[in-house]
Amino acid sequence: SRAGFTGPENLSRVNLVLVKHYSQTLYTLYIRSVYHNLSKEAEIKRINKELANIRSKFKGDKALDGYSKKKYVCKLLFIFLLGHDIDFGHMEAVNLLSSNKYTEKQIGYLFISVLVNSNSELIRLINNAIKNDLSSRNPTFMCLALHCIANVGSREMAEAFAGEIPRILVAGDTMDSVKQSAALCLLRLYKASPDLVLMGEWTSRVVHLLNDQHMGVVTAAISLITCLSSKNPDEFKTCVSLAVSRLSRIVSSASTDLQDYTYYFVPAPWLSCKLLRLLQCYPPPEDGAVKGRLVECLETILNKAQEPPKSKKVQHSNAKNAILFEAISLIIHYDSEPNLLVRACNQLGQFLQHRETNLRYLALESMCTLASSEFSHEAVKTHIETVINALKTERDVSVRQRAADLLYAMCDRSNAKQIVAEMLSYLETADYSIREEMVLKVAILAEKYAVDYSWYVDTILNLIRIAGDYVSEEVWYRVIQIVINRDDVQGYAAKTVFEALQAPACHENMVKVGGYILGEFGNLIAGDPRSSPLVQFNLLHSKFHLCSVPTRALLLSAYIKFINLFPETKATIQEVLRSDSQIRNSDVELQQRAVEYLKLSSIASTDVLATVLEEMPPFPERESSILAKLKKKKGPGAVSVELEDGKERGELNGGADRGGEAAIAASNSTPSPSSDLLGLRSAAPVGGPAPSAGSLLVDVFSEAGSAPPSAASEDPAPPLFVCKNNGVLFENQLLQIGIKSEYRQNLGRMYLFYGNKTSVQFVSFTTTVSCPGELQSHILKCIPSLTHTKPVEPLVEGGAQVQQVINIECLTDFVDAPLLNIKFRYGGALQNITLKLPVTINKFFQPTEMAAADFFQRWKQLSQPQQEAQKIFKASHGMDTEVLKAKLLGLGTALLENVDPNPENYVCAGVIQTKIQQVGCLLRLEPNAQAQVAPPPPPTHTHTHTHLCAHALDSHTASVCPSLCGSHCITHCTHLHVITRYCIYVKDPHRVGSSKSH
Amino acid sequence: MQFMLLFSRQGKLRLQKWYVPQADKEKKKITRELVQTVLARKPKMCSFLEWRDLKVVYKRYASLYFCCAIEDQDNELITLEIIHRYVELLDKYFGSVCELDIIFNFEKAYFILDEFLLGGEAQETSKKNVLKAIEQADLLQENLDFQIRLFPAPS
């Protein structure tokens, strides 16, 4: 660059010259304060004196002329820019901008733009002046006014001018420069107040600005069009073909054709990038000709990257590569052209070794998204060595961070061990700023791709050893959950953690894991005299005094478990518990534990002790809370690879249903209902582009039951909610509705969380719950009540969340779900959404435990045809025992283990509690791998209630099917056969008349 | 683009332009944090960094840092060239621009920026057209002796 910025260090040499050129006043002010080593205080004193002077001039009796006003307003600006607060002068600035003299007007506008003030009287005056200038037909004045609106962009300005500016933008006689300002001015207003900018009648004329003769007009207008398109893609879809032809003309033009719009031999780089960006608001063009032309453009851009550079200047290569990266983004966005994807990947591969750090950085970043495409995942993986090398050798931490992200994204079963090992070794020297995230990533990869669990345990213990401080609770909770659920790894875990604890200085997190695992599974290694019970205890206790209170509390619990596991340690441990430092500990929690454990161990019989301290039951399988934490940390999109990869998960997680995983995870880590949803919200793309723009999270949530509003009312209750109570009920670009519900007996309570995803408030927000058809006759009572102390707030602020509670009482069985209707105004348009609330009869199930003999006796009793409902359906997914179990439990019944003589079958029992009756249900699920089961004859029902109930159960077992089977893979491999038998006990015989109890 | 900051190697802010509304307190906080972060970086490091949920693109010209914060979907390299084109515009207008030109003719620096970028988006990328607009405005200046805005004539 020719830019010859002279640093202040050269100031003394140029002083004399400067004195001539610059204002004496500003100069002395500046020189004195900055360069003559004035102390901060002296500088402030000096500035305050100046401010006092200006204030007195403004307040003085003598009216100031325009020139003086301009001088002082300019001084105020100068002082502001030196970093001091300015709280006056706005009125004088407004006077200036109303002046006819251009320089006065200009300074007035500048002051207002830089020192925006929300005083309404002031804004009224400013708006008046702007109005005059806009109607002046003087293009210079009009531009000044438009710049001011664009710089301030307040709602008051949008109210005043949002109607006028589109007119200026498309009018035939508007000067090009004014059009450019008008387009971007409108963009700013639209971003701030979308509800006030109504394009309606102007849409088509605005889109046609893409064809404008003047490149500058196109450059400005396309930013507006892109923003509008991303919000209303359908209305603006004609822009696609226009953008493609404009792009094609630029790409194929010679480097000199575009004159001043050519930048270092690259034709119109800014416009090209914006065109490619606009196309990313849409799916690939449907019109074959347009698509062909576009693919040609993309190929040309990729080809140009291989040509020798036309200039050695970095500006040339930057501009050229800016277009290339934008083209690659578009290729990734389409994710449909394998050829282009692989070419893009190869190009990025070249950049990985480029000498420019910037290009290496961007190549790593861009490859991260390529790694999630099925077409290019393998191609990305071929660069693993280069990326590992980057992680080790890059000197810039932000580049290393990108390399770590890419390794995470390209990880799969084939390379997990290598990548995890590299990440672990990098952790030893990693920068503090990225350690926590690295730890989470290693923990997730280790869990996700663990084939043998000893590797998983080793990895996590290494993680604690290397970066213990950065291992959050989620990580060590998770390793314990997994060890408890996998009995094949418990012995190994006990042995490994015992060895790890031998280190003289080991991290407190290691002590926690050690305390927990030895307390549960220490017996598995107690046979070895080197890890006899007493050795284990002494090892743990040697760490005790160095630990914090929560860890000590955990250790005390481990000790009482030891007493149960190893009676021979009882005396030693009781001695410890009895010592003053425990039993009289100043910490209440520790003292209480010591006292209670001591007492428990002395008075309880061995049997009682064994029952109290029984081995932990397996944790319900669920999505890793670590993943939720990473999502929270990185924001939307960051872990999209994770979600994309549905086929691979489930090994350890037991395949928590994919749709609701974010919801479940969020509720795992944060127990209170309101924080749940916050956690959810952070994982959801907030105000992001439409799903078509590539946000995978949106897709995932939509599977959790959010149907488009129009279709929602026809759909049955989203199947995923049959077996679970929490999650996202609905989501579109504006609104997210989260749900959390709890049921006891025949009563239920549902919390609804309405989250405004936009930055604009929803007006007239109302919700109503109605019970259609039979429900109306009070079969099911739904009483909504808002938890807010205030009545329903009709305004939901941008980004805010409103909570509503619905109390539900089930009077008798039912089939239909109640409807929830939500109405509000967004940007003037009325939004009307009707959803089915996921209230299904199985929510009122009370699980019933029973022994095998009991079960089959009852099963045989319920042998009438009308007492049975059968359903045979195809499993669309390989059946995972744990998933099936979780589903059946989620249904609300008790899962009876060791009851059915055929271990393949599942049997469940439960009682549906309604106000007037109880319905006992026995359920049997018979997976049939041969897929030969003939459908049973349709059951005939005579009794109304039985019929209803059968119907309800039938439809629910039916709706359980897809969720039983996961909803993604289409591998038909088994059939499932569900038989439900039930009987009804009537609480109030008068009401149901002659209903028999079976 | 969300905002653009110009600051010296000493960390003194020379020009600030905010394209999304921020409270004054927040502006100061952002500026302080970002100036510190950027100044702490070594010369050969890459020009991009993740900062909060934004991408920061910066480049140093002599004693002055030009620093832009852009959104996730924005293009880093083209932003780098936005900075360069702005420097070229200043350079052409002032004739071998230096930090003091920007200090004492801050209003010109703002006017040029407004012609080039508006609402955080490129409005006019032709150097000729931007400077023509500024020169036309200068012609409207009735009083070239105005004490506080003398500047050397472009060579």
From TrEMBL, chain A:
<feature type="compositionally biased region" description="Polar residues">
    <location>
        <begin position="666"/>
        <end position="675"/>
    </location>
</feature>
<dbReference type="GO" id="GO:0030122">
    <property type="term" value="C:AP-2 adaptor complex"/>
</dbReference>
<comment type="function">
    <text>Component of the adaptor protein complex 2 (AP-2). Adaptor protein complexes function in protein transport via transport vesicles in different membrane traffic pathways. Adaptor protein complexes are vesicle coat components and appear to be involved in cargo selection and vesicle formation. AP-2 is involved in clathrin-dependent endocytosis in which cargo proteins are incorporated into vesicles surrounded by clathrin (clathrin-coated vesicles, CCVs) which are destined for fusion with the early endosome.</text>
</comment>
<dbReference type="InterPro" id="IPR002553">
    <property type="entry name" value="Clathrin/coatomer_adapt-like_N"/>
</dbReference>
<feature type="domain" description="Clathrin adaptor alpha/beta/gamma-adaptin appendage Ig-like subdomain">
    <location>
        <begin position="719"/>
        <end position="838"/>
    </location>
</feature>
<dbReference type="Pfam" id="PF02883">
    <property type="entry name" value="Alpha_adaptinC2"/>
</dbReference>
<feature type="binding site">
    <location>
        <position position="67"/>
    </location>
    <ligand>
        <name>a 1,2-diacyl-sn-glycero-3-phospho-(1D-myo-inositol-3,4,5-trisphosphate)</name>
    </ligand>
</feature>
<keyword id="KW-0254">Endocytosis</keyword>
<dbReference type="InterPro" id="IPR017104">
    <property type="entry name" value="AP2_complex_asu"/>
</dbReference>
<dbReference type="InterPro" id="IPR016024">
    <property type="entry name" value="ARM-type_fold"/>
</dbReference>
<dbReference type="InterPro" id="IPR050840">
    <property type="entry name" value="Adaptor_Complx_Large_Subunit"/>
</dbReference>
<dbReference type="InterPro" id="IPR011989">
    <property type="entry name" value="ARM-like"/>
</dbReference>
<dbReference type="InterPro" id="IPR003164">
    <property type="entry name" value="Clathrin_a-adaptin_app_sub_C"/>
</dbReference>
<feature type="region of interest" description="Disordered">
    <location>
        <begin position="638"/>
        <end position="683"/>
    </location>
</feature>
<feature type="binding site">
    <location>
        <position position="57"/>
    </location>
    <ligand>
        <name>a 1,2-diacyl-sn-glycero-3-phospho-(1D-myo-inositol-3,4,5-trisphosphate)</name>
    </ligand>
</feature>
<dbReference type="InterPro" id="IPR008152">
    <property type="entry name" value="Clathrin_a/b/g-adaptin_app_Ig"/>
</dbReference>
<keyword id="KW-0653">Protein transport</keyword>
<comment type="subunit">
    <text>Adaptor protein complex 2 (AP-2) is a heterotetramer composed of two large adaptins (alpha-type subunit AP2A1 or AP2A2 and beta-type subunit AP2B1), a medium adaptin (mu-type subunit AP2M1) and a small adaptin (sigma-type subunit AP2S1).</text>
</comment>
<dbReference type="GO" id="GO:0006886">
    <property type="term" value="P:intracellular protein transport"/>
</dbReference>
<protein>
    <recommendedName>
        <fullName>AP-2 complex subunit alpha</fullName>
    </recommendedName>
</protein>
<dbReference type="InterPro" id="IPR013041">
    <property type="entry name" value="Clathrin_app_Ig-like_sf"/>
</dbReference>
<keyword id="KW-0472">Membrane</keyword>
TrEMBL record, chain B:
<comment type="similarity">
    <text>Belongs to the adaptor complexes small subunit family.</text>
</comment>
<dbReference type="GO" id="GO:0006886">
    <property type="term" value="P:intracellular protein transport"/>
</dbReference>
<dbReference type="GO" id="GO:0035615">
    <property type="term" value="F:clathrin adaptor activity"/>
</dbReference>
<keyword id="KW-0653">Protein transport</keyword>
<keyword id="KW-0168">Coated pit</keyword>
<keyword id="KW-0968">Cytoplasmic vesicle</keyword>
<comment type="subunit">
    <text>Adaptor protein complex 1 (AP-1) is a heterotetramer composed of two large adaptins (gamma-type subunit AP1G1 and beta-type subunit AP1B1), a medium adaptin (mu-type subunit AP1M1 or AP1M2) and a small adaptin (sigma-type subunit AP1S1 or AP1S2 or AP1S3). Binds to MUC1.</text>
</comment>
<dbReference type="InterPro" id="IPR011012">
    <property type="entry name" value="Longin-like_dom_sf"/>
</dbReference>
<dbReference type="InterPro" id="IPR000804">
    <property type="entry name" value="Clathrin_sm-chain_CS"/>
</dbReference>
<keyword id="KW-0472">Membrane</keyword>
<protein>
    <recommendedName>
        <fullName>AP complex subunit sigma</fullName>
    </recommendedName>
</protein>
<dbReference type="InterPro" id="IPR044733">
    <property type="entry name" value="AP1_sigma"/>
</dbReference>
<feature type="domain" description="AP complex mu/sigma subunit">
    <location>
        <begin position="1"/>
        <end position="140"/>
    </location>
</feature>
<dbReference type="InterPro" id="IPR022775">
    <property type="entry name" value="AP_mu_sigma_su"/>
</dbReference>
<keyword id="KW-0813">Transport</keyword>
<keyword id="KW-0333">Golgi apparatus</keyword>
<dbReference type="InterPro" id="IPR016635">
    <property type="entry name" value="AP_complex_ssu"/>
</dbReference>
<dbReference type="Pfam" id="PF01217">
    <property type="entry name" value="Clat_adaptor_s"/>
</dbReference>
<comment type="function">
    <text>Subunit of clathrin-associated adaptor protein complex 1 that plays a role in protein sorting in the late-Golgi/trans-Golgi network (TGN) and/or endosomes. The AP complexes mediate both the recruitment of clathrin to membranes and the recognition of sorting signals within the cytosolic tails of transmembrane cargo molecules.</text>
</comment>
<dbReference type="GO" id="GO:0030121">
    <property type="term" value="C:AP-1 adaptor complex"/>
</dbReference>
<dbReference type="GO" id="GO:0005905">
    <property type="term" value="C:clathrin-coated pit"/>
</dbReference>
